[in-house]
Structures are given as structure tokens and as C-alpha cells.
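Let us practice reading a record.
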Amino acid sequence: MTAAFFLIALSVSFMPSVGAAEPLRVLTSFLPMEIFTRNVVGETPGVIVESMLPASLGCPHDYALTPGDMKKIASAELFVANGVGMEEFLGEPVRRANPKIRILETARAVRPIREIHGEINPHTWVSPRNAILQVREIEKALSAARPGLAPSFRRNADAYVSRLSALSAEFDAAARTFRRKNIVTFHDVFDYLARDAGLTVVGVIETAPGQEPSAGEIRKLSITIREKNVPAVFSEPQYSPKIAEALAREAGVPVRVLDPVATGTPSLTAYEDAMRRNLMTIREALSER
């Protein structure tokens, strides 16, 4: 009887507990969404966070889903995306892979900037103020998916928002020291940060992703740089510096690098670290006469 009882007890101990909650599987679209989500999740048990795109890929403007992506989507319960046109594969392709998945477009919380042709600029996360809004959207979505874990998500989000608020305050303080307000960027990724800092983007090198400017457009932009007293050309580490360097030579200004945090490592402080480097670069360029 004792041996039989032991075998029964042992078998029961390896059986899944009745009513045990399934882990919440969260899929993020690309690096900034992964960083934000991992900060809100923190050490909360029962939550698995995975990024769909490799952290080295960059902005998924024209990205096409792969069979491997479809498998990741099929196993996820929540898909955290930037949205507003950044991930063009959202919608039917994702729904086809997983009709039950909940899609969160975090940028819906941000006051949009519209381009010349009416499209919304999707690079919302490159602004600490916007990042706070997007983090809160992630917190709400996670809490809705697992209400029992909501207090943990709230604590983690509060702590992260506190850090992002400090970062935003640093940009605000620096903006009061800027002697120049006009900038030229590689493409339209820094428009929201410029809005926060009271800057004006008077030109971009690439008006569409992957579309290099012509020689005539380079000449025209160099004239704008001289006329608008632009102190530097801002390039991005995700792109070749050759075009920015050619423009800078013609305009007689230096090249500075700003990182939109589209590639890198998903460490919890990666966004803050990159944005503080950006702040140092902007301050050095714009605080000079």
C-alpha cells in the first residue's frame, strides 16, 4: 500500500495543475517596441516576450513576413507594434496567421505629424515624450490580457516612465540653450524629437527610404543649409554615411550621427542610452554660434 500510494502521489505531482494559466506570449515588431515591452514586463512571471524582427534590421517600412514570422505570430497572444504605417504588414497578413491575436498599435496614443502628402510620420518613438505614451499603451494591453498581473505591470511601467520623464526633462533643458533651430536629417525619423525641442527640419537627404537624392537635389539642399544657417548634417548609423558626407562637403558643415534606436541590443536601458548620446550630439551642434 505504501509503494502504491507513493506511485500515485508521484504521478499526480507531475500532472499540470487544474486551471493553471497559460503563459502570456507577447510578440513585438522591432527593437524599440521590444525595449519598451521588456521594461513593462520586467521580472513578471508567466510572460514571454519575443521580437519578430532581428534587432539589426532597422525600421520595417517595406518588410515582408517570412514563414518563420508567421509561426511566431501564430503562437502569440499579443502583438505589440508601433503602427500608424510603420509595419505595413499589419492587418490581413497577421490576422491570417492568427485570427485571435490582439494587435496593439502603440503610436495611436501620439499626436501625429502629417507629411506633405497627408501620410502620418510613423517614427513616433524617437521622442521621450511619445515613448512615455507608448509605454502606457503597452501597460494597458498587458494588463487587459492578464488582469491578475496588472499591479506588476503598473509598477514596472511607473518606474520606466519615471526614467523616461527624466530623459525628456534633459532634452527640454538642453533646448533652452540651443542657439540654432534649423536642422537637416538623413530622413524624416527625427521630426517628433524636433517638435519637442522646438527645432525645424528644413531638409532631409532621403525623402523616401532607400531613394538616394540626385546631384541636383544635393546642390539644392546644400544651398538650404547655407541659407538657413544649419550647423551640421545629421546622418544615421543604420545607413551609409557617403551621401551625408558628400552633402556636408558641398555645404561646408560637419556630419554628426543621430541614432533613432532602430537597431542595437534590447537591453532595458538601450533606448535611454542612445537618446542621451543623441542629446549630447544635438547640444554640441546647436549650442555653437
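A brief commentary: The longest helix spans residues 150-175.
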